[in-house]
Amino acid sequence: MEDRRCWPVVALLTVAAQCAAVLRRWEETQPDCQIPRVSVQPVERVIWRAHRTRRARARRHNERQFKAHAALVVGALRQAEARQDSKPGLALEDLTVMLLTIAERYAEGRIDDLLDADHLAGVTPAAPRERLRGIVVGLTVVLVMAGAAVLGLPDAALIPLLPVVVIFVAVVVNRGRMPTAGQLTDLIIPR
Q1: Quick check: pTM over 0.85?
Q2: Rounded CA separation 99/105 (Å)
């Protein structure tokens, strides 16, 4: 249980270190004009679930407040990530500072105050789409498997077809991101 509560800090610090390393490389080789890119997607899930992992169960009105704050924080991170194209050095500095601030405040238990108001000013809140993606994957897999059964594929072919369809649809819905080895193992051998 304690490891689960600490994992978000590790994820945040890992991406912050990645930002710092890319910034250092950018400052050393700036004439090459290769614009650095760091994705904040690995920490978005951490931020969306921060109120659940840090606190066991929140009251309903507090949960709404936590979710609204998480939407603003993710929106601020996405905004800083988008600035990497126009001002890479400044954007990477901002991302590093924001991620370190979020990690520190999460560790302190301040999940309703992960970033200061100046970082959140003028930010459009992000919309969580994880559930929607899960529903789309599930419905698509059911439709494909039902279509295969209606076409008369033998049962022996349907069983190996299921994991292939699930992986393919998950990659397409998640915009080309392959599932990790652990996710694939859980798919084939459920726990």
Answers
A1: no
A2: 10
